[in-house]
Amino acid sequence: MFDMNDCLTVCGKTYRLIRLLGHGKGGYSYLADCGERQVVLKQIHHEPCDYYTFGNKIEAECRDYQRLKDAGIRIPAMLAVDIEAERIVKEYIEGETILNYVREGVSVEPYLPQVREMAAQAKAHGLNIDYFPTNFVVHDGLIWYVDYECNGYMDEWSFDNWGVKYWSRTPEFEEYLRRHEKIGAQ
Question: Whole-prediction pTM value?
């Protein structure tokens, strides 16, 4: 993890880190400034994950990005990749996450048809995306899948069988908040 205002380079271009956006299974994502615009800079990490097995993470990000584009999933554009430094720069989609909406009691009902359409597109291409609500940002009334992770389709990990459990104040969502807040407080 880097400090804010650190500068990192990707393909010879310098990016100033503004704030941490998220820490996932595969890396740390930062809001960054490169002079002309704000972007997301993702630094791949190699921290252990007891429930997911990875191969080459940077190659998987590039491959999954193309698979998602081919499936017609609304995702931010990949702007640069530095294989050696294991860094990706992608378009920044400004907005609130579905997780924040659910946490604050804002109805996500208007976005369910959109996520179900994404789920149908993914399934038609033999894929599942990670339906966890941190991975979806609302911008101008549209939801964007801001992660590039996708896997081969399995019915148990579909939106209707898994993801929907985290798109409202379900026991699963409440358990996530309890664990997350406990970890964040340490």
Answer: 0.89
